[in-house]
């Protein structure tokens, strides 16, 4: 009798729900251990984090502020991942979106009067993100260049380019040494609803729903699902695989670019350092934990944003490093990664086969 | 037969099953020292499984192996190596980017920390000249021709002092000239006292290379005899068998216009070698044309050319009167062509998607499943339920992911989808391979009803009985060439068997 | 010391950590495992080495701890990707995320009370330089001798790693696992063990690369001490075509850009710096494209063919 890992015969719904849940619990335990080692009471810490993130309107607003870009980039990354296109470039696409939106806001006032300036900025962000993602997509489909590193490298190029801009030609002469562009005119400001949180939240949630509808209820979404499941099967049914990959990846980039546009028009109102604090990378966690389901993305994004904001609060209240939140984010993924094995395989016990026997050889 | 000499290899009562199929059923094998034994049989007969057991890659469910009369525990390739057993597989176990020397010593634990390549090279050169296996030791594997790669594989075994060499379909990848050279190598090996078993489905090979031949069919031994005492015709009959399964009602043929026409089609295979050579034939509406032949002789490539998945380098393809040479798969689908592919798992179905999605994959572009850009989910589910019932697909629900279905049910899903969409042509490539009796019957009935409904059906199968029962005409494909088209009412099954094995002359009366 | 020599000196200094980490990642990727956790492991290596040296005043101990930490993180990656069959990209990124956050966390908690428990701004022993006085006076070649002992160790590491990979039996087995795990398995090589082993060794070397930053190059600890070097290492692995001997060129190139940037910043313009800093990343993309295209043409000089794929032997 022996124990075997064997592939599951049917998708197990209990496993799909239990695994993320148990993983989250494991990560809580690990974090609690960590806190104990450093002399902080885990329960008090977790409580402080929860209060920090949700307990006040200020805290909740800040949670939303961090959640919005996570939602947008999470959606973008989820789409790309669904086609098995490893878009690690959300950070760069977001940055270029911010750059484009800033460019429109700073220089297109003459052509876009009133609120149309804001709309133009957002569209610019969409477009820039789409194009920035289009490059690695084309390199993959036409030249088969691996997208992991290309998207990653383009992150750095984007960040450096935006640095160049706000240190250089776009620098605010009245900036008092603080690097950044001048402020946009009020027409380009994204309206806020609570504290620093802006209407981008509604757009993000709406996009999550729309994206889900597209994936599950439209012909194009169906084609994308087939491509993601089996490129060969898609080709065999006449689906244009390469063209759809490029389109979907550009959509992915557009969503990330829009996130960047939200950041500059809604939060900072200028192009400056700190446009993104790693949203593009955290987006990968968001997408993964949402199991690539657009409807789950807003929830996961808020949860992770709460961890980050809670971490900030904890720094002030309990003297723990702000990096606490980031550590927790990392700690969540490991159990989840390990646990993903159990959604595909299960432990089973193998009993030895019963022995029948071969017929005796016929004598000649 | 009685022998007083202890056989070099004896396998007794070997049985091995995989989920859903019995690969070896109480098989006995004897190999005498210095002998060359041919294992003959169609695909799926169990030859490779038996040899994988001998060389340690598989563990048999039952049975024992004796080497030189002594019981042998063979649980891994390394154990087999200790007994002097080595195998040259059909997919060579060679690392393309490395050179010959490196591949020869790969995995050898006796080699020192810093291998002395000069010593390896000189021993290799000696072996090479001894056995007529010339190859450049410094060449990288990817630079070598397939024939040369095979020589490296054999040298690998000889370097490891193999006494028993197993060759899996060795001439499948060789030119006739290279085959003769291989024969020379085998003769030298015999002189050196080595023994060999080779797996094949080609009669020519059996007659030319072997001293004894054992025929397997559906996992069981049919017969074993010395090669000198048999004829290709007899071997063909043993290989192919004469079981007749079901009688199927077939209306007499009333063929209509030409649904599919190929004229002098040529196409390259995946490796860049010619896979189809000068193929020409006509398929009429309301007719089933069966294509006989062992898998690997161009069937997949032919189906791919007809469905637009592979370019043809020469020739013309006409579907329903229109020129469709090298058009896209979508255009061909729009002409009403359906295709049941050979690779059901990776091409015919998308495992992670649901049964309903897989069923909808051909007709999702238009009504009733779609309205504008939207897919109508409830219509898709209804559509799926209808097909599930009609084809008796066994699945917990239409939303179950296809990867969880059994092979037979996946095939039924593919069948259901394709049949629903076929209007002009149906291309079915080994549709009943690996299916149980019930599913097989469904498949065959469906193909016949398609034909009765006026479609042209191009039907590839390795099972001659099935082909002859269902088809109106049958053609044989061997090494990319059409070996003849026959009316099933008048054809001689032995003749077909021989054409399938490459013998295009009447051998014996 | 003339300009060229001084640039070369800084370049070699900068390239040391890059080279060790690159060789480590080369070994890992040669086994078929892609480890995107380099940035996180480098940070943890830098932090743990610095903290250890600060308290124990022993460089050797600092190295040991860094090696231990790097090995542990890499073990986690190996476990997740090989045994648990998790996605290699996500696993590596998680390690980077965790390493970045955790090193920052520890950097604010492991310091002495006198410094608010923070490690930033502290000084500790540095890796001893081994530079005879006359080295400064020799142009060009003097730069090679004006370094610390770790750099000298790297001078040795490069040919040793090259020799190991291409001339020894275990090196041959390692290469086969990354190129064609099916064949390696059929030839009796334990693919799983190989992947674990070289991923862990790779992690150790990467952490040592981080240690060089905090104990020599910078020195000290700050949260962004690596400045994205971890990602450059991944690019350098491709740039060196998975050959340890070539790793040094890439490290020199990227190290050199760093050094030149120092000099330029000294003259006040920051504009060229941004674009100059883009060079490594843009260069990587170009190298990738060219190499992919070349590999498609000649089936040569590519990544280990099985890089990034998980391996499962057929059920028997």
From TrEMBL, chain C:
It comes from the Bacteria. Its main location: membrane. It is found in: Cell membrane. One of its GO terms (molecular function) is transmembrane transporter activity. The keyword Kinase does not apply. It is a multi-pass membrane protein. This is Putative glucose ABC transporter permease protein TsgC13. The lineage of its organism: Bacteria, Pseudomonadati, Spirochaetota, Spirochaetia, Spirochaetales.
